[in-house]
Every structure is written in C-alpha cells, then in structure tokens.
C-alpha cells in the first residue's frame, strides 16, 4: 500500500464521520433504555403502526416502480405524438413538495372541497372521507415520488445499446417481450435505486402523513417525543428506521450485483414507433400522469393564490424567499463539495473496506427523518456543552442555537446521499485506464483531479447540486425545529397555513417554491440533454 | 427469392446509396464488398427493416416487405436474421440464453438440442453458461452467428461476422457456415472487406462503388 493512503484515509474518515454524526448520536440513545415506555409502545402502538407503514411502503413501492419504469420506457424507446415535450414534462413533479400535492388534493376532495360539494348538491350523494383507508395517501405518494424511479430508469434505458434491442427484434421478438426480457432486466438496478430513494422518503415523511392524519412508524417517533417527552425513545425508534434503511441499501446493492452493461454512446434512434390510435393512447396516458401530478394541482394553486392575493399580498414573501435562498444555496454548496471529495476516484478507496463503509455511513442520513436529525443534533450539542462546562468552559448552546449552523448541518447530513450518488455515478465513466495512462505520463495527483477527474465529474456535480437544492428547499421538519428566530422559509409557511386548512393562503408560497423548483429541474434537464 | 430495388439512402444532406439494386434467387449466397463508410451496413439495416430510407423496395419470397423506403412489415415479423457488426449480444444472458432467444416457442429439449448443435458447429462446446463479457471478441462473434442461425431465418444478413477471427479459424468457419446455409437453403448476404473470404463463401460477389452496386 502506498504511504499517502493514511493521509487520505484520515481525511475522508473525518469528513464522512462528521456528516454521519447525527446517526451516531441517535444510536447512542440506546445507552439510556426506557423499559416502561417501550413496554407501552411495543404492546399498544407499534404493531398497528408497523403494519400501516408496511402497507404504505408496499403500495407506494409497487406503484412507483410500475409507473416510473413504464413511463421511462415509453419516452426512451417509443416514438409517439408529443414525446419530446412529455419526456421533459414528466420531470416537473419533482419540483412539487409532497406536502403541497397532499394539501391540494385534500383541499379539492375534502368535505368542503369542490368535488364533495358538487356530489352533495348536484348528485345528492353523501360525502366520503379521503382520509379513510390508505389508498388516497398511497396515490399521493406515488404521484410525488415516481420521478425518482422515472429519472433513474430513463437514464438507464438511454444508455442501453439500441443494437441489442434491434437484435432481439430480428429474432422475432415483439415489444412486450423485448421490454420484459431485455430492457427491463438491464434497467433493474437503476429502477431499484430509484425505488430505494422513494421508500426512504416515505419512511421519513412528516408533512403528508400528518396532513392525512395517517399513523405510521414516524407517528410513534413523534408521539414518544411530543407526548412522552422522551428524546431517548424517539431516537431509539428512529434508529430502527436507520436499520431498515440499512437493509434496503444492502438489498439494492445486491440487486445491482456486478451489472454494468452500459454503452457510452446515447443513440437518438427510437426502436419503436407508435402512431395512429396506439400512439395517441400512449400520449394520453402520459399526459394524464402529468396532469394529475403537476398541471392540475398547479392550476388549483394558481386559482387559490389569485383569490387570496386580492385580500393582501405582502412583502413578507420577500423575506421568506431570501431566507429560503440563503439556506438552500449555502447548504447545497457545502453538501456538493463534501460529496465530491467523498466520490473522487482514489486507489486507496478501492482497496479499503473501511473507507467504503465510512462513506456508506455518511449517506445513511437520508433515512433519518428530518425531525430526528434535528433532535439528535440538539441533543448532541447539549452534551458537548455539558462536557465543556464540566471542564470549566462555557456552554456553546447560545452560539449554536442562535445561528443557522445547526440547520445547515442537518441539511448536509440528510441530503449527502443525493449529492453523493449523483456524483459517484459520474465517476463510473472514469475508466482505470485513464488514470493509469495519466500516471505513466508523470501527472501529479492534483493535476489528475483538476484536469481529468473534475471535468468528467462536472455533469454529475451539477446534477447532484440541483437535486440537493430542490430537496433542501422542500425540507420541512428539520427546518421547523432548527431554524433560528426570524428564519421562516417558504416550506414552513406552506405547512403552517395548510395544516390549519388555510389553503388559499398557503397557495402563494407553495407556488413560489414550485416555480423555483421547476426552474432548477429545467436546468437539470438542459444539462442532462447536453451531456 | 430476394429483390432490393431503387434503394437510396442519405443522412442529412449526404447521399450514401443511390438506386441500389440487388436480386438473389432463394439459397443464393451473396458477398458485398466496399470501402469503409460506403453504406454496406446501412443497406443491411434497411433490408432488415430497422431503418427507413429515401426510397427502396424489398421483396422476399414474393412478399413485399418495404416499399418507397417505408416498411410494411415490422423487423420482428420478417424472419430475417442478422449478425451485427458489433455482435449485439445480450449482456445479461449467458451463451445458451442468447442463442435460444429467438427459438423460445420450441420446447425446452428442442431448444437444448439446437443450442448444442450450433455450439458444436462454431467450435465452442462447453461455454453455455458463460456470459458475453467472459468471451473473446472472436468467440462473441461466433455466438452472434449461432444466435442468428438458430431460428432458421429466410434471409440471413451477415455484417462482417468473421472479422475478428484468425486465418485458420476463419477459413474453417466460413466453409462450415456456407455448408449450413446451402443445406438449409437460406438466402444470405455477407458484408466483408476480405476478397478471399468473399470468393470462398459466396456464389456471387458485388462491390459498392459510387453509391451503386456493381456485380462482378
Ligand atoms: N445514423 C447515422 N447518421 C448519420 N450518418 C450515418 C448514420 N449511420 C451511418 N452514417 C454514415 O453513412 C455512411 C455509411 O455508413 P455504413 O455504416 O453503412 O458504412 P459501412 O459500409 O458499413 O462501413 P464499414 O465497412 O466501416 O462498416 C458513413 O459515412 C456513416 O458515417
Ligand atoms: Mg459497416
């Protein structure tokens, strides 16, 4: 082993472990067992909550997998009317925060929403409650999270050699068998990665489940903390979530196997064309997904926002925008920088299972619900202060709690996985042969990074940055708990208003968020097209 | 029999083929020569129904497959086999699965016999369970050939299928494949850069020159 490996090991470990700190704090909570509370939880609450969570995960998982891969296959492999436009439009729902879609659907289908009023007054039917059962919340989650699967599966379909599909066709295989036997197996690892992200998002969700009054495992965490004032039990429950995430990641890695069957060239040829009735059916299908996940909810927001803006537009939106931007931009820059360092190709990483696991741990924060991350950080800072006072120093609480540092930390820790995975993917085209030939030419490591690695990683870094930014802007629970006084964001405003049923008032900040998010997604699309 | 008529292909403003004409009797083996970039692969892609053209007609055994550069019959229904220039093996399937991909409607035991027979012919017995990335270039090429032969196509298009083989293997395989094609009476077109290979394999040889086909 070369000697500078020690240096890079130390550096990477320190960075990665720092990012993963909230997870360790949460895990440490097991040092303070609370038997009575656990007895209460495990007999009364948990069984139902776990089964509800499992139902939710299975329903959403199946839904996003089907919807995401089928949409991706159609836009990549089939030529049909409006394809180019729809391929692009399907990304936009990514800009819609889950709780925004949830409150729009609740507003429309609630007892006092149009649909039920119309049913009562025109049809004379009795109303229904969309909060009963789990179908409505599952559908909402599917519409919000299918873009993860869509995005990953689409990228994978695009990298498949068209040749292979053509070979299949000349062997007498129709579109369905080609999809099932060739395209789908090749895209399976990518779709599984998208599914993984979706499941972690659902596990960590706070906004949608609370708007729908749907009790999940997360509810137990809040209950432990809110009703029983036990940070420890809340953290212990949360660490179980991390464990589940750990298993999911493990299975995803296994599903991926050694499979890397990609070509570098992206062909513009479409193997299939669907014109006539079939083509229009496909267009209509995709268009209706877009309508349900984006266009109709946005239209509803615009109507609400318009109604409300007559009653009082105020400058407070400017303040909200400014704090949202400052937080988003700074957290994104730091996240992406750290992710880049962690993802840089490095021969030390290849041979060190220690480094590999440390980096994996650094990306686990994605599974921690934002609120738990917040509690973990607060708890951690408290402990540090206690130690500092013990040694005759000062409490650091004042300094930290009054600043945005803790919130930035939470964002970085939580969204490292998004940035890292995107950047890591871009390093996969850096073949060992490039490094080897550069080294044979006597190029120093710094120059290698600067001249070869970073230029090749730039698309991944930009894409990762955009996705991280959208996620941070949408983030709710950690922001809610950790923002210093005067740092309300758009997300906070939307949630507070919509939780009280003030949908019209919530519409304007929601629209501003979606607008920002859409702009970022459009830039993302543009970069994607160029690369 | 195969008839290719009035075939003109252009990409953007560049004309590649102009009024290409070819007629073959059933069972004929034809070799197509031409400089690199002269449009040999493009011609095969049109005949197989994968790409459309400015104009062109394809008639196979009395059935009009394409007309005016547009395809009436989809590639999967043409019963045309093709060995791609870059093999295009399915990377996630082993050799056996690759070869039997086009004969999935046969029974398992029939598939097995067929695969064994073909592997014996291409001299690759015992590689059934290997994956394409575990094979050398020449071995992959032979598997691609076996895969195209398995469904007994009516027309076989071979885009430089022997290019990665050494002289010794090449000559043996060329003659063997010719033998099979003759026995099964499969009409075929071989694209190659090797004049010797063309003469021992084919009944007729043609060259693309100035965007047209001249038969020697
Ligand atoms: N999809 C395409 N778009 C634009 N130009 C193309 C496309 N496919 C092929 N060409 C061009 O058409 C010409 C003929 O290509 P083709 O692949 O048919 O040549 P070829 O005779 O098979 O050559 P080789 O012997 O090198 O395989 C080439 O100049 C090529 O650059
Ligand atoms: Mg060619």
Can you lay out the helices and strands and say which pair or pack?
The complex is a heterodimer of chains A (531) and B (216).
Chain A (H helix, E strand, L loop, with lengths): L3 H16 L1 H8 L6 H43 E2 L3 H7 L8 H12 L4 H10 L11 H25 L2 H9 L4 H30 L2 H5 L5 H10 L4 H26 L15 E2 L2 H34 L6 H28 L3 H5 L1 H10 L7 H21 L6 H5 L3 H23 L4 H9 L4 H30 L2 H6 L7 H10 L3 H28 L1
Parallel strand pairs in A: 1-2
Helix pairs in contact in A: 1-16, 2-12, 2-17, 3-7, 3-9, 3-11, 5-7, 5-13, 7-9, 8-9, 9-12, 11-12, 12-17, 13-24, 14-19, 14-21, 17-19, 19-21, 21-24, 23-24
Chain B lengths: L1 E10 L2 E11 L4 E6 L5 H9 L6 E6 L2 E5 L2 E2 L8 E4 L11 H6 L7 H14 L15 H13 L5 E5 L7 H18 L2 E5 L3 H7 L2 E6 L2 E4 L1
Parallel strand pairs in B: 3-9, 3-10, 7-8, 8-9
Antiparallel strand pairs in B: 1-2, 1-4, 4-5, 5-6, 10-11
What does this structure look like?
The complex is a heterodimer of chains A (531) and B (216). Chain A has 531 residues and is mainly α. Chain A has helices spanning 4-19, 21-28, 35-77, 83-89, 98-109, 114-123, 135-159, 162-170, 175-204, 207-211, 217-226, 231-256, 276-309, 316-343, 347-351, 353-362, 370-390, 397-401, 405-427, 432-440, 445-474, 477-482, 490-499, 503-530, and strands spanning 78-79, 272-273. Chain A has 24 helices and two strands. Chain A has a two-stranded parallel ribbon. Chain A is globular and about 80 Å long. The two termini of chain A are 36 Å apart. With 216 residues, chain B is of the alpha/beta class. Chain B is 31% helix and 30% strand. Chain B has a six-stranded mixed sheet, sandwiched between helices. A five-stranded antiparallel sheet of chain B has the order 2-1-4-5-6, with helices on one face. Chain B starts with a strand and ends with a strand. Chains A and B meet through helix 8 and helix 9 of A and strand 7 and helix 4 of B.
């Amino acid at each position: 082993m070369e000697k500078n490996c020690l240096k890079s090991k130390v550096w990477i470990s320190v960075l990665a472990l720092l990012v993963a700190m909230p997870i360790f704090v949460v895990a440490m909570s097991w040092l303070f067992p609370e038997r009575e509370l656990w007895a209460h939880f495990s007999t009364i609450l948990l069984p139902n909550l776990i089964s509800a969570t499992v139902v939710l995960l299975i329903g959403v998982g199946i839904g996003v997998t089907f919807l995401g891969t089928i949409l991706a296959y159609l836009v990549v492999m089939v030529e049909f009317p409006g394809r180019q436009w729809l391929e692009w439009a399907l990304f936009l729902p990514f800009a819609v925060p889950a709780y925004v879609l949830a409150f729009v659907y609740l507003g429309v289908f609630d007892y006092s929403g149009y649909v039920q009023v119309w049913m009562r007054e025109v049809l004379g039917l009795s109303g229904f409650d969309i909060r009963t059962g789990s179908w409505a919340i599952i559908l909402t989650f599917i519409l919000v999270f299918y873009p993860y699967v869509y995005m990953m599966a689409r990228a994978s379909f695009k990298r498949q050699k068209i040749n292979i599909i053509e070979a299949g066709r000349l062997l007498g295989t129709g579109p369905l068998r080609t999809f099932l036997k060739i395209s789908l197996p090749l895209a399976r690892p990518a779709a599984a990665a998208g599914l993984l992200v979706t499941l972690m998002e659902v596990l960590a969700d706070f906004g949608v489940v609370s708007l729908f009054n749907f009790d999940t495992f997360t509810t137990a965490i809040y209950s432990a903390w809110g009703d029983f004032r036990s940070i420890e039990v809340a953290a212990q429950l949360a660490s179980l979530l991390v464990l589940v995430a750990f298993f999911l990641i493990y299975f995803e890695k296994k599903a991926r196997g050694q499979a890397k069957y990609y070509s570098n060239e992206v062909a513009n040829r479409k193997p299939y064309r669907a014109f006539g009735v079939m083509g229009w059916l496909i267009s209509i299908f995709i268009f209706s997904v877009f309508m349900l996940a984006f266009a109709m909810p946005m239209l509803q927001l615009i109507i609400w926002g318009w109604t409300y803006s007559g009653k009082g537009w105020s400058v407070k939106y400017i303040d909200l925008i400014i704090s949202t931007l400052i937080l988003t931009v700074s957290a994104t820059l730091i996240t992406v920088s750290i992710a880049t360092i962690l993802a840089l190709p490095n021969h030390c990483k290849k041979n060190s299972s220690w480094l590999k696991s440390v980096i994996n741990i650094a990306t686990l924060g994605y599974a921690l619900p934002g609120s738990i991350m917040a509690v973990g950080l607060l708890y951690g800072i408290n402990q540090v202060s206690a130690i500092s006072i013990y040694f005759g120093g000062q409490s650091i609480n004042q300094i930290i709690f009054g600043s945005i540092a803790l919130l930035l930390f939470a964002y970085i820790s939580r969204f490292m996985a998004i940035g890292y995975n995107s950047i890591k993917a871009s390093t996969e085209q850096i073949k060992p042969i490039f490094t080897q030939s550069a080294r044979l030419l006597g190029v120093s490591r710094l120059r290698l990074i600067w001249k070869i690695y970073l230029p090749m990683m730039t698309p991944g870094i930009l894409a990762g940055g955009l996705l991280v930014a959208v996620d941070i802007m949408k983030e709710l629970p950690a922001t809610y708990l950790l923002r210093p006084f005067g740092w309300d964001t758009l997300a906070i405003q939307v949630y507070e208003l919509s939780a009280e049923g003030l949908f019209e008032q919530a519409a304007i900040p929601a629209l501003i968020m979606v607008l920002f998010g859409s702009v970022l997604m459009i830039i993302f699309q543009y970069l994607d097209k160029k690369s | 029999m195969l008839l290719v008529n009035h075939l003109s292909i252009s990409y953007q403003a560049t004309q590649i083929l102009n009024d290409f004409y070819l007629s073959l009797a059933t069972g004929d083996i034809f070799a197509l020569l031409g400089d690199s970039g002269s449009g040999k692969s493009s011609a095969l892609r049109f005949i197989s129904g994968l790409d459309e053209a400015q104009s062109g007609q394809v008639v196979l055994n009395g059935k009009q497959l394409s007309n005016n550069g547009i395809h009436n019959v989809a590639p999967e229904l043409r019963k045309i086999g093709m060995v791609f220039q870059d093999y295009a093996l399915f990377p996630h399937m082993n050799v056996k699965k690759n070869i039997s991909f086009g004969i999935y409607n046969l029974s398992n035991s029939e598939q097995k016999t067929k695969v064994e027979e073909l592997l014996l012919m291409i001299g690759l017995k015992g590689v059934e369970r290997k994956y394409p990335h575990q094979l050398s270039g020449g071995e992959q090429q032979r598997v691609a050939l076996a895969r195209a032969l398995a469904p007994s196509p009516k027309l076989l298009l071979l885009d430089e299928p022997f290019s990665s083989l050494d002289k010794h293997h090449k000559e043996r395989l060329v003659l063997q494949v010719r033998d099979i094609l003759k026995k099964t009476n499969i009409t075929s077109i071989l694209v190659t850069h090797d004049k010797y290979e063309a003469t021992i394999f084919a009944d007729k040889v043609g060259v693309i020159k100035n965007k047209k086909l001249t038969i020697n």
